[in-house]
Amino acid sequence: MKQRLLRFLISGGSAAAVEYAVFITLQMALSDKWLFANQSLSFACGFVVSFLLNRHWVFQSHGHMGSELFKYGIVATINLAAGNLAIFLLVGPADIHPLIAKFLVMGMIAAWNYLIFSRLVFRKPAI
After folding, report:
1. What is the pLDDT of residues 80-92, one digit of tens each?
2. Four-residue CA torsion sign, 96, 100, 105, 111
3. pTM of the full predicted structure?
4. For the range 2-5, what are the long-range contacts, defined as Cβ-Cβ under 8 Å and sequence gap of 24 or more?
């Protein structure tokens, strides 16, 4: 269990690094006018890395990939909607710089993902 949590943190950190690097690059290239597109596209890049690492390395799942991807996608869609709302509130009314807001949002989402992924997405079949 401890090893799986460590792997989750490493894979999550890797996916977060990809997501944040893409976000910074897009923000620099496209500016704040494209904030939600930048947030969504960077999230999608992190999603791909996260799903593959979680499925194959963290949870070492042998379940049906399509089913797991579907469930993972539902969680990701909820996370994206929550992330976009949080970015809107942090950058708009709270007047926080977009790069700081993105970092905070990523932390918020990571906080609840381990439990959701381990209990709902990559659940070991009952024997």
Report:
1. 999 999 999 999 9
2. negative
3. 0.82
4. 4/58, 4/59, 4/118, 5/114
- State the pLDDT at residue 127: 63
Angle (CA) 74 75 79, round 5°: 120
Distance CA 3, CA 9 (A): 10
Residue 1 has pLDDT above 90, yes or no: no
Residue with the larger pLDDT of the pair 124 and 86 = 86
Domain segments of the chain as ranges: 2-121
